From TrEMBL:
Pfam families: HAMP, HATPase_c, HisKA. It comes from Paenibacillus validus. Residues 184-236 form the HAMP domain. This is Heme sensor protein HssS. GO terms for cellular component: plasma membrane. Its EC number is 2.7.13.3.
C-alpha cells in the first residue's frame, strides 16, 4: 500500500500538515501567552493604583459599593490588608471573595514595603497567570495597608484558544491549497511520462516529454527522451537487419535457383556447365559464410559465449594471420609491410585471431592491385595498439561511424561488387568490446586505417 507514489505523497502531506499545525500552535500560544501576560501586568497595576486612590478617598462601605457597582472589572478579585500587631489582617469587603495566597507573601510586602507580582504560592508555576497575584503596599490614614489583586483568566483563555484555533484553521487551509498546487505542478511531467510510456509500449518511439526542469523529475524526463530515441534507433536497426538478412539470403538463393533450373532443364551448353556449377558453388559458399557469421555474432552477443583467456605473444599471432591470408594479398600483388614490436598479452586467442583476420582481409579487399598494406603493433603502458593501414579509396567522413554496424557497407566509395556481407567489422567490434578494448577507423593520405587498442590483461 505504502509503496505507491500516491500513498507516499499523502503521508508526506499529513506529516507536513501535522508539523505546520504543531509549530503554528506553539508559536501562537507562546506569542499570545507573552502578550497576555504583559497586558495583564499592566492592567492589574493600573487597577491596583486606581483602587488605592479610591480607597484613600472613601470610607470602607463606600469603597465596597463602588467596587461592586462599576469600578472593578468582573474578572478581578480584590482584597485589602492592614498591618496590625505585626500581622496582616484582611479588611472585610462584604461578599467579595478572599484570594487564596501564601500569608508569608503578604507579610513580606508589609515588611519590605515592595510590590509583589508572582505566583500566589512559591511552588506554583510562575507562567500560569490564573495563579498569579499582584500585591501593592500603601499607607492609609497613617497606617500600613496593602492591596491584593487576582484576575479570572477563564475568558482570556477561551479567547486565546479560539484565536489559536482560527489561525490554525487558516494555516490548514493555506497548507492544503499550497499542497495541491505544488502537487499538480510536480505530477504534471509524471502524467506526461505515463502517457508517453503508453505510446512507447505501442511502438511509437517519436514521443517526447518536456525536460526543462533541473530536478530529479527533469532528469527522469531527459533520460526518458534518450531512452525513446535509443529504442527508435534499435527498432530501425532491427528493421534494417531483417531487410539486409533477407536481401543477403535471397540474392544467392535466386542465383542458385536460376542456374540449377537451367542445368535441370538442359538449357545450358556443355562448355557452360562448369561455369554454372562454379557459380552455384560460390553462392552456396557465400550463403554458408553468411549463416556462420550470423551465428557467430549471435553467440558473441549472448551472455554464454565461451571466453578462454591465454597468455601468448601477440606479434607471433599477427605474423600467422598474415601468412594465412597470403593467397589473398599475393593474388593482387599487394606489398605487405609489418612493423611489429614484441608484445605478450592475455586474451582469447581464437577470438582475436578472428579480429585480425577480418581487418586484414578488409584492408586487402579495398587495396587496389599492386597497393600497400601496413600492419603495425606497438605497446603503450598497459595496452597494445594494432593498426591496419591500406592504400584504398578511404571511407567517407559521414559514414566512418557506421561501418561497424551490421550489414553496413560504404557503397559510395567502396565498390559493393566486392565480396562481403557487412558482418565482419560488426563481429570484430563485438570481440574487441568483450576484451574491454576499443576499435575505430580513420582516413589518412593514402587510404583507411583501422586501429585496435586492447589491454595487456583484461
Amino acid at each position: 500500500m505504502f509503496k505507491s507514489l500516491y500513498a507516499k505523497v499523502i503521508l508526506l502531506f499529513l506529516a507536513i500538515v501535522v508539523s505546520i499545525l504543531g509549530l503554528g500552535y506553539y508559536v501562537i500560544s507562546t506569542y499570545l501567552g507573552n502578550y497576555l501576560r504583559d497586558r495583564v501586568q499592566e492592567e492589574m497595576h493600573r487597577v491596583a493604583v486606581s483602587s488605592i486612590h479610591l480607597y484613600n478617598e472613601m470610607t470602607d462601605e463606600s469603597f465596597t459599593l463602588v467596587l461592586k457597582g462599576f469600578f472593578l472589572p468582573k474578572s478581578y478579585f480584590l482584597n485589602i490588608y492592614r498591618f496590625d500587631g505585626g500581622q496582616p489582617v484582611l479588611v472585610p469587603m462584604g461578599s467579595n471573595a478572599t484570594i487564596d495566597v501564601d500569608p508569608s507573601i503578604v507579610r513580606a510586602m508589609f515588611l519590605n514595603k515592595q510590590e509583589y507580582h508572582g505566583p500566589a504560592y512559591p511552588h506554583y508555576d510562575p507562567k500560569d497567570m490564573s495563579l498569579t497575584v499582584l500585591g501593592v503596599p500603601f499607607d492609609h490614614n497613617g497606617q500600613p495597608y496593602a492591596i491584593l489583586l487576582q484576575q479570572d483568566f477563564t475568558n482570556s483563555v477561551k479567547f486565546q484558544i479560539n484565536l489559536t484555533i482560527v489561525l490554525l484553521i487558516f494555516l490548514l487551509i493555506g497548507s492544503v491549497l499550497l499542497f495541491f498546487v505544488s502537487t499538480k505542478h510536480l505530477m504534471k511531467p509524471l502524467r506526461e511520462m505515463v502517457r508517453a510510456t503508453r505510446k512507447v509500449s505501442k511502438g511509437d518511439f517519436e514521443v517526447k516529454v518536456a525536460a526543462t526542469r533541473k530536478d530529479e523529475v527533469g532528469m527522469l524526463a531527459f533520460h526518458f527522451n534518450r531512452m525513446a530515441g535509443e529504442l527508435k534507433q534499435i527498432e530501425q536497426m532491427r528493421r534494417d537487419f531483417v531487410s539486409n538478412v533477407s536481401h543477403e539470403i535471397q540474392s544467392p538463393l535466386t542465383s542458385i535457383r536460376g542456374f540449377s533450373n537451367a542445368l535441370k532443364n538442359g538449357l545450358v551448353q556443355e562448355e557452360d556447365r562448369v561455369r554454372y556449377y562454379t557459380i552455384i558453388h560460390d553462392e552456396s559458399e557465400r550463403l554458408s559464410r553468411l549463416c556462420d557469421n550470423l551465428l557467430k555474432l549471435a553467440s558473441l552477443e549472448s551472455d554464454h559465449h565461451p571466453f578462454v583467456l591465454l597468455t601468448y605473444p601477440l606479434d607471433e599471432q599477427l605474423r600467422k594471420v598474415i601468412i594465412a591470408s597470403e593467397p589473398l594479398w599475393a593474388r593482387k600483388e599487394i606489398d605487405i609491410r609489418i612493423q611489429l614490436e614484441p608484445a605478450v598479452i592475455t586474451a582469447d586467442q581464437d577470438q582475436l585471431f578472428q579480429v585480425w583476420k577480418n581487418l586484414l582481409d578488409n584492408s586487402i579487399k579495398f587495396t587496389p592491385q599492386g597497393g600497400t598494406v601496413v600492419v603495425s603493433l606497438t605497446r603503450a603502458g598497459k595496452q597494445v595498439r594494432v593498426s591496419f593501414m591500406d592504400s584504398g579509396p578511404g571511407i567517407p567522413a559521414d559514414e566512418i561511424d557506421k561501418i561497424f554496424d551490421r550489414f553496413y557497407k560504404a557503397d559510395k566509395s567502396r565498390n559493393r561488387k566486392r565480396e562481403g556481407n557487412g558482418l565482419g567489422l560488426a563481429i570484430s567490434k563485438r570481440i574487441v568490446d568483450l576484451h574491454k578494448g576499443e576499435i575505430h577507423a580513420q582516413n589518412n593520405e593514402t587510404g583507411a586505417v583501422f586501429i585496435v587498442t586492447v589491454p595487456v590483461k583484461p
